[in-house]
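Input record, target 12 of the design panel.
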């Protein structure tokens, strides 16, 4: 039995006693008018929701006396009267009336309208009603990606449910005529997954149940699928060289799985074309790891490329704006086919990129030595990558020991050579002297140098911080902080001169290095 009905029983029985006294009083005052009890019919029952129905009455005859109470009475047996556990009071007068009552689901009730005048109580026809019910609710909703979402529902019913699940659309109150899943039949808890969703889209969903060809729905649940990452492509630096640099800034939040740039000779490149795979680094302006730097590689001379950034999350891949760039003509190639550009600084012409060859100018191979002991004890030419990681090949090139630098077969392309200490001094003097020359020689920006606030690269030399391979265990020369270059000039039998630039300094400095040290090489034209 509905507990709300039990709570009303005592109150309404007390009201009945008052009603009877009122009726007796009215009857005494109107006995000479010979009134009769009202006549009325009970209005059809309408279901409002799981627990609520409406009925009421239509007064067909007021019995010649004013109606001072009317409503409906409800009973568990088939003769409901206002002496039963529940009745409603819905106004006075002979106008039709509507009554709303709460009933326990899955229980049979008998309902009739009543009206009271000076002659007594009139009752309408008796209607029986059983409130069968289907209640479906969304208990849990989550695991939202760009294309899917998870729903857990609960179904309580007195009927036989033949189908249940979730339906959804981009407007409120979706139905099973929209997109839907099917999650079996019966009552209880069920789980289902909404699929085929569009990333970054707002949806409305409802759990549903079908019983006796009627569809019952839960309330709306609103959600938005995860969108593709939003990002912009960084402006290209070092244009006019083969060591261009770009990257991206991610504007949206969320876990990024991969990021980089992609490029093609056709517009709108995708990750199916050439691409980098870069690490996110701290963005000083936002304090978040939502920026990355990229070094496109393998770009051919005199060719136009379209480049844009990309980032991938669980929803998919988003792209930044597209930038077009035309690569320069190659000034010279090494015997591995690597192109180089050049810049004239004063009376000298220098290659802009660090040397990348594996061959001497006569075609002989330069050994790639990765064993630490062999590297530290070498007495002939060798090359390696920084920390023996090929990832440093772009844009830093290779590191060479001094024996390769001074080999008579010439490590530089034909017509070019490794500069002497005097030739380095000529360069340094032309760009302002050793105290400030680092500013004029270093690449600008922080794609590779960290920090690099004072660099101007006014010379076009575009020095990069390729670090070095030490000749001693425990001694390190970190990339991104140091750019170190050989000269062809010895200091003595064990050492030779080189020059280094440091990230936070304006200067360039001469230093003697053990000949087994691996440094970058810049070639100068003969």
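The sequence produced for target 12 reads:
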């Amino acid at each position: 039995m509905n507990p709300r009905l039990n709570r009303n029983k005592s109150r309404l029985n007390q009201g009945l006693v008052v009603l009877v006294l009122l009726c007796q009083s009215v009857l005494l005052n109107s006995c000479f008018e010979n009134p009769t009890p009202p006549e009325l019919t009970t209005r059809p029952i309408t279901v409002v929701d799981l627990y609520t129905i409406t009925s009421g009455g239509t007064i067909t005859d007021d019995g010649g006396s004013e109606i001072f109470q009317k409503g409906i009475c409800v009973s568990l047996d088939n003769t409901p009267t206002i002496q039963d556990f529940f009745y409603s009071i819905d106004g006075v007068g002979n106008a039709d009336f509507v009554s709303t009552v709460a009933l326990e689901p899955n229980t049979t009730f008998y309902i009739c309208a009543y009206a009271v005048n000076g002659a007594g109580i009139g009752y309408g026809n008796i209607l029986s009603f059983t409130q069968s019910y289907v209640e479906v609710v969304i208990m849990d909703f989550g695991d939202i990606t760009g294309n899917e979402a998870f729903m857990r529902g609960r179904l309580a019913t007195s009927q036989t449910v033949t189908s249940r699940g979730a339906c959804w659309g981009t407007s409120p109150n979706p139905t099973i005529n929209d997109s839907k899943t099917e999650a079996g039949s019966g009552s209880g808890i069920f789980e289902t997954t909404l699929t085929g969703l569009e990333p970054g889209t707002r949806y409305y969903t409802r759990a549903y149940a079908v019983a006796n060809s009627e569809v019952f729905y839960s309330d709306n649940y609103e959600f938005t699928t995860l969108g593709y990452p939003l990002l912009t492509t960084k402006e290209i630096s070092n244009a006019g060289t083969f060591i261009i640099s770009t990257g991206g800034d991610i504007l949206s939040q969320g876990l990024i799985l991969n990021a980089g740039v992609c490029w093609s000779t056709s517009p709108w490149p995708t990750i199916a074309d050439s691409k980098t795979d870069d690490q996110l680094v701290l963005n000083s302006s936002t304090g978040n790891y939502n920026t990355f730097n990229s070094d496109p590689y393998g770009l051919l001379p005199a060719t136009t490329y379209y480049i844009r950034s990309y980032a991938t999350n669980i929803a998919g891949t988003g792209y930044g704006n597209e930038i077009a760039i035309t690569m320069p003509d190659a000034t010279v190639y090494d015997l591995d086919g690597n192109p180089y550009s050049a810049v004239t600084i004063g009376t000298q012409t220098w290659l802009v990129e660090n040397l990348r060859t594996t061959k001497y100018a006569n075609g002989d191979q330069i050994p790639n030595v990765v064993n630490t002991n062999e590297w530290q004890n070498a007495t002939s030419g060798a090359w390696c990558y920084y920390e023996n990681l090929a990832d440093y090949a772009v844009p830093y090139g290779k590191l060479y020991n001094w024996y390769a630098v001074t080999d008579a077969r010439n490590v530089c392309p034909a017509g070019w050579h490794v500069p002497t200490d005097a030739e380095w001094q000529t360069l340094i003097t032309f760009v302002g002297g050793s105290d400030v020359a680092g500013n004029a020689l270093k690449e600008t920006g922080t794609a590779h140098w960290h920090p690099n606030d004072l660099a101007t690269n006014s010379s076009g030399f575009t020095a990069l911080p390729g670090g070095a391979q030490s000749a001693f265990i425990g001694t390190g020369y970190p990339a991104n902080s140091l750019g170190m270059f050989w000269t062809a000039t010895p200091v003595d039998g064990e050492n030779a001169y080189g020059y280094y630039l440091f990230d936070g300094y304006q200067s360039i400095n001469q230093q003697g290095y053990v000949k087994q040290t691996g440094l970058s090489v810049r070639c100068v034209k003969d």
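The chain has four domains: 3-130, 134-224, 231-326, 332-525.
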